[in-house]
Amino acid sequence: MTSLVVYESMFGATKALAEEIAQTLGEAGPVRVVEVGALAAEGPMLPADVDLLVVGAPVHAFGMSRASTRLDATKEMSPVISATIGVREWLDDLIVRSGLRCATFDTKVLTPRLPGSAAKAIDKHLRSAGAVRACPPHTFSVNGKSGGLVDGELTSARAWAGTLIPRS
Q1: Residue 38: what pLDDT?
Q2: C-alpha distances in angstroms, 81 versus 35, 60, 92, 154?
Q3: How far, in whole angstroms, is CA 111 from its chain's centroid?
Q4: pLDDT(125) > 90
Q5: How far is CA 1 from the centre of its chain?
Q6: No. of H helices and E strands in the chain?
Q7: Helix axes 153-162, 13-25, angle to 10 degrees
Q8: Neighbours of 97 (CB within 10 A)
Q9: CB-hemisphere CA count at 13 Å for 27?
Q10: Is the model's pTM score more than 0.85?
Q11: Which of these, 124, 123, 157, 164, lies nearest to 140 by C-alpha position?
Q12: Which of 2, 20, 112, 148 is deepest in the core (most CB within 10 A)?
């Protein structure tokens, strides 16, 4: 199984999860983990050999980030990792191969509990483009906007990624 893990990250939590997920998926075959802006620069087509696409992003304003919310993030702490393009813009240009397995995740502040999900929005977009859901969207918790992951979330990411590996 060849996997591609794409992430958008402001302060590093979503990137850390993407790397952890990629490490687990590596047990099943080749895996590449890449920041969304770097992948967008390669064009709208995914590599033909990708069997599983995993996409993760932080929750901004109850959903996927926008240019304005990424700008706001840079005012809180600079530099941010994904300053130029977010998953929302990448998805608008992405050409998805029909039947491609996909999984989505997001990072969201633990408290206060607010509505919204980037993972659900990403999942909806990918499925409407022809991808097939490998598992329901998943949310990982962070301690405030720039406080890092809640304890245990990297372990949870490994377990979640393990569910994406087909068992024979």
Answers
A1: 96
A2: 8, 15, 20, 19
A3: 21
A4: yes
A5: 19
A6: 6, 6
A7: 40
A8: 13
A9: 14
A10: yes
A11: 157
A12: 20
